[in-house]
């Protein structure tokens, strides 16, 4: 029997990590619901008699032309507001590797590999289905991304008794998945790069990181003062990244990586210092991201004039729809589960007792919810106003809904089973308040 060190998903994970992820799930539930509501309003408005006013609002331009910042409101949402979302993606990814359960490379390699499989297989399926239509091939990256807010919200609603390790796995998978997707955007969806603004942006990000790492030396014990200094630097770095031609959300990820995160082996004073800044940024930006930035982006990105019954039939039978739906609903779980099986076979690692491969299939289906970043890539894949762009959005929404429904049914059944198991076990807590099942994971 394999020891706990060789198990890729400890059944419960570390206690502190379980508490942190549980709190994150509760926050993302609200954000996920706001995301769905914003998208629904956009779709209804775009298909109502007032549809012209929706598209006029989305295409209304504002900004300063000489700085390449005269953009439509829809572009501001995609390039600007979404950078806040990716800032938190960068911060969360760094935290997982520095202080989370993924600081151990043997543990981290599985979700990282699964995320890579969850990107590669959907891309291959999309390319295979759309290969006979050269005008559609550029959209191969549309089904590669997982929507963190949406997927985590679904899991939080239906998975109250699922093992914490599965939740941690989904969160890490989604973060790495989105990081791979944003890297794809930078490499494959950047037509032309102006290196001078790019170098200036990277230099500013380096300065930002230097100040963030030593903020106590500059500002004493006031993380709020650091926030006031770092925020303008981050905005200017974002502006130069945008002017360079590289998608500006890349700046958000890099800035998130610059924020210091506590390592468990550090001294008490270092933990207090770094936790203060990381907590300050997350405290201020997470509500802004989940409650405003991502829903506003969804509002402007999801609005598609379907065109009545004829439009629905045309979209449903279009090869672009078939490619995206097949890639997200089938490609994601196949890529994630197959890669996990391959890695565990090669490394001779086992699932912990109580976890089944069907649980991973459920998580793989949740990963097929490709909403936020998929909509972003759809905008980049096809010309503005092109029919393919609208059909791609309809396909993304449809595939995400299908994946969410199937995953909800499967994981609800698994959640019921785990609830019965936990009721029978009646796990007791020790005097320190930590259940016995976590004790073997401490240290």
Automatic annotation (TrEMBL):
Question: What's its catalytic activity?
Answer: Na(+)(in) + 2 H(+)(out) = Na(+)(out) + 2 H(+)(in)
Q: Which organism is it from?
A: Gulosibacter molinativorax
Protein's name in the database: Na(+)/H(+) antiporter NhaA
* Any Pfam family matching the protein: Na_H_antiport_1
* Membrane topology annotation: Multi-pass membrane protein
Question: Could you tell me the keywords of this UniProt record?
Answer: Antiport, Cell membrane, Ion transport, Membrane, Sodium, Sodium transport, Transmembrane, Transmembrane helix, Transport
Reply yes or no: does the keyword Transmembrane apply: yes
Which PANTHER family would you find in this protein's record?
Answer: NA(+)_H(+) ANTIPORTER NHAA, SODIUM ION/PROTON ANTIPORTER NHAA-RELATED
Coiled coil stretches, renumbered: none
Q: What does this protein do?
A: Na(+)/H(+) antiporter that extrudes sodium in exchange for external protons.
Span-the-membrane segments of this chain are 30-48, 73-93, 105-128, 140-158, 165-189, 195-212, 224-240, 246-264, 285-308, 320-343, 355-382, 394-413
Instruction: Name the family the entry cites.
Output: Belongs to the NhaA Na(+)/H(+) (TC 2.A.33) antiporter family.
Tell me the gene name: nhaA
In terms of HAMAP family, this protein maps to: NhaA
Where found, per UniProt?
A: Cell inner membrane; Cell membrane
Q: Does the keyword Ion transport apply?
A: yes
């Amino acid at each position: 029997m394999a020891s706990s060190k060789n198990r890729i998903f400890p059944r419960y994970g570390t206690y502190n990590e379980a508490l942190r992820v549980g709190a994150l799930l509760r926050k993302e539930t609200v954000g996920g619901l706001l995301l769905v509501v914003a998208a629904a309003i956009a779709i209804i408005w775009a298909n109502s008699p007032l549809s012209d006013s929706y598209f006029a609002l989305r295409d209304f331009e504002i900004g300063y032309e000489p700085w390449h910042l005269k953009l439509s409101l829809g572009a501001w949402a995609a390039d600007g507001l979404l950078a806040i979302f990716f800032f938190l993606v960068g911060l969360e990814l760094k935290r997982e590797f520095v202080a989370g359960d993924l600081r151990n490379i043997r543990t981290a390699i599985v979700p990282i590999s699964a995320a890579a499989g969850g990107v590669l297989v959907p891309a291959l399926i999309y390319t295979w289905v759309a290969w006979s239509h050269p005008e559609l091939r550029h959209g191969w990256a549309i089904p590669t991304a997982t929507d963190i807010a949406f997927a985590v919200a679904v899991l939080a609603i239906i998975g109250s008794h699922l093992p914490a390790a599965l939740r941690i796995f989904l969160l890490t998978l989604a973060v790495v998945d989105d990081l791979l997707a944003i890297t794809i955007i930078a490499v494959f969806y950047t037509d032309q790069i102006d290196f001078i603004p790019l170098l200036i942006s990277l230099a500013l990000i380096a300065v930002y990181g230097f100040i963030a790492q030593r903020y106590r030396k500059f500002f004493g014990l006031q993380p709020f003062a650091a926030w006031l200094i770092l925020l303008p630097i981050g905005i200017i770095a974002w502006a130069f990244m945008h002017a360079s031609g590289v998608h500006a959300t890349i700046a958000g990820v890099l800035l998130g990586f610059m924020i210091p995160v506590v390592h468990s082996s550090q001294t008490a004073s270092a933990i207090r210092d770094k936790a203060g800044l990381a907590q300050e940024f997350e405290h201020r930006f997470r509500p802004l991201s989940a409650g405003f930035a991502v829903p506003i982006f969804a509002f402007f990105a999801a609005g598609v004039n379907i065109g009545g019954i004829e439009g629905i039939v045309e979209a449903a039978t279009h090869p672009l729809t078939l490619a995206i739906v097949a890639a997200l609903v089938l490609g994601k779980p196949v890529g994630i589960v197959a890669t996990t099986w391959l890695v565990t076979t090669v490394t001779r690692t086992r699932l912990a007792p109580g976890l089944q491969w069907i649980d991973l299939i459920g998580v793989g289906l949740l990963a097929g919810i490709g909403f936020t970043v998929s909509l972003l890539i759809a905008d980049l894949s096809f010309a503005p106003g092109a029919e393919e762009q609208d059909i791609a959005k309809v396909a993304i929404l449809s595939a995400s809904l299908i994946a969410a429904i199937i995953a909800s049914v499967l994981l609800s059944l698994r959640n019921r089973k785990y609830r019965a198991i936990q009721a029978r076990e009646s796990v007791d807590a020790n005097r320190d308040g930590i259940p016995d099942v976590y004790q073997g994971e401490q240290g």
